[in-house]
Amino acid sequence: MRILLLSGYHAASHAYWCGQLRQMIKAEWLELSLPPRHFSWRTRGSSLAFATHYRAQIEAFEPTMIVATSMVDMAALRGFFPHYANIPWVCYFHENQFAYPNAVERKGLVDQQLTSIYAALSADRILFNSQFNLDSFRRGAKQLFKQLPDFSAPELIDHLSDKTSVIPVPIAEDAYRADESVNGQLNLVWNHRWEYDKGPDRLGLFVDLLVQRQLNFRLHVVGQQFRRVPSALQQLLAKYEGSCYLGHVGFIQERADYLALLAGSSHVVSTAIHDFQGLSLLEGAAAGCSVVAPDRLAYPEWFASQCHYSTVKPSMEEAEAAVEALLTPRKAADVSHLSAQNLASAYLEVLTH
């Protein structure tokens, strides 16, 4: 097989998936990607970029299959490359544009949503990284069709089922660690993007309650950072700067150092209001951490109920539930079935049939 792999918005999680896919599937690969900036333009302009700036490279490669993330306008791309009509086209959805909580009203959101629907309709096979992602896409797409003035076709969404599968982003093999001794201190890791949808306001309430209860804990706040840091996270870090409660703060550049931090920690924590899979938590579980996560989003697909805390509005009630979940003894969740080694056959089945 000669597989053309296209990533229209090459954010960290997309790059992670591309790397795992190439390692799992023995084939001749050509991977092309666009930088993760200008989000709205990427959703509409990625196909134009690939068809113009990369056309010679693509046609010289002569792919026998095209795999693209949902950030690529696959319907338009097929129009740019009509001579590839008879080879399989596979679309992978890391996310969808329907379930993302909007801090502010996003310009062009309906256009982005329609583009993702067109990509799904034009693909020969569709993959989602979680059932939550798939269900929220279906629900959102049908709702959007109902809002359109005329000539909509909500029944088309049901017709996608026969060509749709759920296969998570695999956990890299290097994330799995043998059990390492962890001292009696609660050594917590919050390893998420520093953005509002990861619930930094809820994290602040959780940490405040841990301090009020005089618990012996240390919190590492790691994850990808951007120019704008949510005010709730700024306030949390300023409040406890220099205290015994804060450990490592900031993105860890070297993956080996990041994995060592996970392996030496007791718990990995999420306060997110948006997560289509939860790879950060899954890597923490693979490293031997106990999971503390809300009972929403994709988390119930991977973790047993004792790992979850009940979710309400961002208040002390939810923080109290999170603390109780933290203090409930349990073993680390078994996520071995989500390893690259164990998911390789599922990906191979999709790509070869």
UniProtKB/TrEMBL annotation:
Stored Gene3D superfamilies: Glycogen Phosphorylase B
Enzymatic reactions: queuosine(34) in tRNA(Asp) + GDP-alpha-D-mannose = O-4''-alpha-D-mannosylqueuosine(34) in tRNA(Asp) + GDP + H(+)
Residue span, tRNA-queuosine alpha-mannosyltransferase N-terminal domain: 2-171
Entry-linked Pfam families: Glycos_transf_1, QTMAN_N
UniProt EC number: 2.4.1.110
Keywords (A to Z) from UniProt: Glycosyltransferase, Transferase
This protein's record includes keyword Transferase: yes
Listed name of the protein: tRNA-queuosine alpha-mannosyltransferase
Source organism of the structure: Umboniibacter marinipuniceus
